[in-house]
Specification:
Number of strands: 0
Radius of gyration: 14 Å
Protein name: DUF4219 domain-containing protein
Organism: Hibiscus sabdariffa (roselle)
Distance between the termini: 30 Å
Structural class: mainly alpha
Largest sheet: none
Strand content: under 5%
Amino acid sequence: MARFEEGRSISCPLLFEGEAYFQWSNVMKYVILAQCFEVWEIIEEGYLEAPKKKKKIMSENDTKTKLNARAMHILLCGLSEDVSKKVSTCK
């Protein structure tokens, strides 16, 4: 049986260690929704690629770019070191 431990941040109370994904994902959904509904929308709709030129980042996509970074941060904080290594090259 999977056992959850404290995450690396107060924003991520559970660490996913490769088992009990559906329980972990359900809890993480509400952790993220409680922090910022827009972050959950980014996760559901998909990651927005950041523009390659810095000038474009400071445009209207600035908010979505920040939300992308926040979503990735929250999700990565909820992964154990072993799982994090496995997904580190994924987008």
